[in-house]
Known about the structure:
Layout: H1 3-14, H2 18-25, H3 29-42, E1 48-52, H4 58-63, E2 70-75, H5 78-90, E3 97-101, E4 114-120, H6 129-139, E5 140-151, H7 159-179, H8 182-194, H9 199-207, E6 211-218, E7 223-229
Parallel strand pairs: 1-2, 1-4, 2-3, 4-5
Antiparallel strand pairs: 5-7, 6-7
Helix pairs in contact: 7-8
Amino acid sequence: MAKKEEVRGMFNKIAHRYDYLNHFLSLGIDNLWRKKLRRRLGKHNPQSILDVATGTADLAIELARLRPEKIIGVDIAETMLEMGDKKIARKNLQHIITLQQADSEDLPFADNSFDAATISYGVRNFETPLKGLKEIHRVLKPGGVLFILEFGMPKTFPVKQLYSFYFNFILPFWGKVFSGSYESYKYLPESVKTFPYDKAFTDLLDQAGFAQTRATKISQGITFLYEATK
Length: 230
């Protein structure tokens, strides 16, 4: 099975408990990370935003606070999008946010369509990350910006050891308890271990054609905020 179909099936399976588990397993810190991205992006005053791998639209909803003209969220997992649509309706944000099913590596948008693009913990799920980043580069306007949140691997003692224990044992256990899917939450640490981060990822952004690439370490390297410009 292709990775994207495997990822699609996995996220459709856990969609009903995804938001609860995200906030529970991160102790709510994931909300602070999204707010940090929103504040950084707000300096660019984007009016059109593409949120790739939007999931249940947590980041898209946070970005609505910037009052852009439109936010389009795309994801391959239709059940995640259904959950996102319900949240958007509850917050009366349908006039700003639209969700649609789409492949991050084959975006259904014209060249130079968006002022900004964002990804929140989804780029490591791309089947071919470089191809997906090139697609995002294509649909951004000249001067458009890309902001990405993604996990890293802490290197300092004792954060490295605690993080490894949590990711490899605690997270899969509670993921199974609350979602019924041990495999889905075992996938998370495995995908983080093999994905490039820090300079290795900014090098990938450079290869995709971006300029002014930057990596900011957050929470001692548990996560990174990446910025780049077309």
